[in-house]
Amino acid sequence: MTTKAISPTDGKAAGNTKQAGLRRWLKWLPSLTFVVAAALLLISISQPYWGLVLQAPQYPGGLQMRVFVNYMTGDEDPRLDEVREIDGLNHYIGMKSLYEAAKFERSIAIPVVILMIGLLLIAAGLQRRWTWVLTIPHLLSRSSFSPISRSG
Fold first, then answer.
1. Which of 55, 57, 61, 90 is nearest to 75 (CA)?
2. Helix (H) or strand (E) segment spanning residue 93
3. Does 42 map to a domain?
4. 67-111 per-position pLDDT tens digit
5. For residues 147 and 79, is the Cβ–Cβ distance under 8 A?
6. Is residue 119 part of a domain?
7. Strand ranges for 8-150 from DSSP E
8. Is residue 149 scored above 50 in pLDDT?
9. 13-29 core/surface letters (b: 16 or more CB in 10 A; e: else)
């Protein structure tokens, strides 16, 4: 029968192993966050960024409009083109046509989103101290880029 003496450093070694595991996990956390952000951004292309529902007596079901990153649509009712109807109503209050608004932004929307996804994936793979700088275009675009950002 053999016995092993426990030294005071054995407890520290176990603690160091836990700390090393935590440090390793924390090292990969930003990369994981960047990858998740890129995946969510990719998914967002197929989801509406903004929606509108107008209720009026002459439209019993209401008028609905959903704005995606590069196009607008109404609900699935084939009897009424809701975007065109809302556009016609907007004409009476002096608004520019929805189809004419933000043409440039809608034309570059998908390439810009793909560029942001690429920058996020590069930031995830580099794991350098300043790679977070690659996420700045994404952060700025969410607050300033919208398919219908300008009406004039």
1. 61
2. none
3. no
4. 999 888 887 777 778 888 888 888 888 888 888 888 898 899 999
5. no
6. no
7. 50-56, 59-67, 72-73
8. no
9. eeeeeeeeeeeeeeeee
Within the chain, strands assigned E span 50-56, 59-67, 72-73
Residue 80 located in a structural domain: yes
Domain span including residue 69:
50-92
Q: Are 66 and 48 in contact (CB under 8 A)?
A: yes
How many residues belong to the chain? Answer: 152
In a domain? residue 72? yes
Is residue 34 within 8 Å of 120, Cβ to Cβ? yes
Six token digits for residue 141: 């675009």
Count of the separate structural domains present in the chain: 1
List the one residue out of 63, 60, 62 whose CA is nearest residue 73: 63
Side chain identity at 132, as an amino acid letter?
W
Beta carbons of 69 and 113 less than 8 angstroms apart: yes
Q: Are the C-beta atoms of 81 and 89 separated by less than 8 Å?
A: no
| Integer Cα distance of 46 and 88 in angstroms | 26
Q: Tens digits of per-residue pLDDT, 11-60?
A: 555 567 778 777 777 777 888 888 999 999 999 999 998 898 989 898 88
CB 137 within 8 A of CB 115: yes
The pLDDT of residue 151 is: 43
